[in-house]
Structures are given as C-alpha cells and as structure tokens.
Amino acid sequence: DAGVIQSPRHEVTEMGQEVTLRCKPISGHDYLFWYRQTMMRGLELLIYFNNNVPIDDSGMPEDRFSAKMPNASFSTLKIQPSEPRDSAVYFCASSLNRGYEQYFGPGTRLTVT
Amino acid sequence: GENVEQHPSTLSVQEGDSAVIKCTYSDSASNYFPWYKQELGKGPQLIIDIRSNVGEKKDQRIAVTLNKTAKHFSLHITETQPEDSAVYFCAASDVIGNRDDKIIFGKGTRLHILP
After folding, report:
1. Local mean pLDDT, 10-residue blocks, chain A (113 residues)
2. Residues facing B45 on adjacent strands
3. How many CB atoms lie within 10 A of CB B76?
C-alpha cells in the first residue's frame, strides 16, 4: 500500500481565497483524522470520521473550516475564506480501528498571505 | 475532556546516553498511550504504545512505562544514536469505552542527539 496520500504537498494562497486539501486513506481503514500542526499549538485534532461519518468536529476552529468524506477512499478539508492565521501543516491520518496505530500522510504545508 | 502534558519541550543528549520524556494525563478512563516520532518534513509515526493493563513495554532501545495511579507515562531511549533526533509526541485515549473518545496529543519534545 502507498500509505496515506495527501495533496497538494504545498499550497500558497492569498487571504480570502478558498483552499481545499485532499486525502486518500489506506484501504480498509475505518477511521480518518484531520490534524493541524503549528509551533504555537502543536498537533491539534480538527475532526475525525468513522466509516465516512463525522464523529467529532469539536476541534474545527470555526465555520470557515469544513470537512467531508464522500466515500471510504477520499476526504477533503476546505477553508473558505482563508486567513493568514490558518497557515500551518495539515495532516491526514487513518487507522484500522480505535486503539490502533494511526498512519499519517506527509502533510500539506499551507501558507496564506 | 482529556489533557496531556509533556515535558521537557526540548532535550539535548550526548550520543550513547539515555533520554527520558515524561507525560501526564488527566482522564483516569484513558487506557491507550501511544508514542509517535516525527522526523523533519514528515508526518508522525508510531514507535511504541502501551495499554493500561501493562506497566512496561520494551522494543529494542525503546521502552515505555505507565503509572496508572499517578497518571503518568514515560518514554525511555537508551544508547541514543543520531537518527533518534526528532520530535516525539505522547498521546492518551480511551479506546475501550463507548464514548468514541478521540486521541489527545502532548505538545511534543524536540530531542537533539549531540555528537
């Protein structure tokens, strides 16, 4: 398996623009997680899905953030409109089940100017 | 909700010496404690985990200990090598109960192995 795939790897955009991050989890994994990593706040869980259903989105910072998982092999995290404080590395991870290893993707480095 | 505190935030160790990273958690229901290693430019990767029915677990140069009473757990790396330089995260979660509990990560420890 190729592991968790994220695209794009780098994204530079201007404030106010819409940003869409994409993730393909490992086949057969039932759980998918979106994290944001910054120097100040560390690794924050934004939202996670179980069998394509959002379970906990309490980490989503505000209504500008939304995430979807239309099928077992694809998820998106959208920011609209983007702001400079959204600049961070966004990771997608998947796991077989609760209590199992989370496999992280390589991350998307987002810069909002 | 769960809160995980990790320290130190930065640790420098001479190559060949041991390194210890400590974490505390707040939710007594937590029963799964993984440790992740993040190398520069990559996503975190699981290196070892421990569950609440075990007090210690070893894997070659890496060991983790858990004290449920005190609600703290530690990562021990012996005979450190240059490739151990990375950021290490501890985490805690309840994976047995019915709460569909999310995993909470510590803020991370940047480990430098000095030549």
Report:
1. 92 97 96 94 92 92 94 97 96 88 95 97
2. B37
3. 16
